Amino acid sequence: MITAMDEQTFSLPEYYINRELSLLKFNQRVLQQAHNASTPLLERLKFLCISCTNLDEFFEVRVSRVRQRIALEVGHSTSDQLSPHELLDQIHIEAEHLVAEQYRVFNEKLKPELQSQGINFVAREQWTTKQITWLRQYFLDQVEPVLSPLGLDPAHPFPRIINKALNFIVQLEGSDAFSRDGKYAIVQAPRSLPRLIKLPTETGDAVSENYVFLSSVMHAFVHELFEGLNVMGCYQFRLTRNSDLFLDDEEIDDLMRALEGELASRKYGDAVRLEVANNCPEELVTYLLHQFKLDSIDIYRVNGPVNLNRLSATYNLVDRSDLKYAAFTPGFPQGFNLETNIFDFIKRGNILLHHPYQSFLPVAEFVRQAAADVKVLAIKQTLYRTGPDSPIVDSLVDAARAGKEVTVVIELMARFDEAANISLANKLQKAGAHVVYGIVGMKTHGKMILVVRREHNQLKRYAHFGTGNYHQKTTRLYTDYGMFTHDAQLTADAHEIFLELTSFT
Prior knowledge:
CATH superfamily of the largest domain: Polyphosphate kinase middle domain
Number of domains: 2
Helix content: 25-40%
CATH topology of the largest domain: polyphosphate kinase like
Largest sheet: 7 strands, mixed
Shape: globular
CATH class of the largest domain: Alpha Beta
Distance between the termini: 37 Å
Oligomer: single chain
Mean pLDDT: 86
Number of helices: 14
């Protein structure tokens, strides 16, 4: 029984942890993995990159919501009693500390340790004469043809900067062929080009691998874009925008069409964070803040390349198994092999799978065999994230084309996978599958497959329930459970859930 005193105690703000600040603390723990000397070096680099992508999403979604509360003048709404302004101040303090630690880990720990292993990120001031010659030609052949520098003057206003794109603001002096006095220009790094460039091996240096950031190449040769003018300065910056999609539940007639309309504007949502190189002059920082309607609390100066997540390419570029986790081959449940009839296998009893230690292949095989089995009449499945080129999706398409009743509940609001899920929905519909999007205002997070099969003139149900997603790649990364069952009560429950998701039962 809760007394009045207990209720008063439970209302005290010191008993609560703010969820936004808690998420930043979690990200700090992710970054701590990059410190762990017992972890392989390239895996530590990967943890650093994960902390960077996590922080991007934090600003795109969580900070954007806080700023919206400020704009709408919404006061206390959380149990810790922090106002939106106070929360934004706390976020800035914690995030600034996290960013500083990310760059300290890279500059003082990972970079030197990688160098000791012959993996070098070569700074501009360290380029040899041969490297400069090769990189200039690379710039002229591979980079300059796809660049579109934008001079800023009354006829060329400040451009719309794409969310999370790498840009340079260039200070200029002098006049061009049209007698225009150039002062500033914006150059965006093309997203189509690799962010990390491997330098050719030089004679006598066969043991080392040397890499250069695309940003360094653009910085070094940016003057090639402005003939006749003097480049007085060139500084990296990156803008993070609000990527939280807004859909009015009461005004939606077609969820997919409404979501497609929102996705079109995601690249140009309200600005929420500005990252700049720490050598960027205050004059230019102020100018950029003004252009993006941001305040000093929204600026993050970095000691190194803007966006350390560019380093993630290193993991695949460097073929060093000794610097990565040992390869792991997941096992199969007892009695299962590639020749197994999955339905006979499930009839033996409930089967629990523990991923990634056990393979996800039996799940993909369940759908594949169901699609090919003439005894199978219907397949129903929820999909949240699947990834490109999903064998499960291919099997569902095959089943629909074969005339089976295929019903798929696709969660369109899977954050940052919305466009992929819309494409998936269109692909399944073209094949003849029934596609629905769950319930407006709620997320369909349950993972289920239900197969209806005719056996000896009776209909039998088989089901798979799972945590995680039906995504071949992430099942090798995240710890999840899955279960196959032929149990009449459990499969009947799955049937009822699908009725609720697809109809008004």
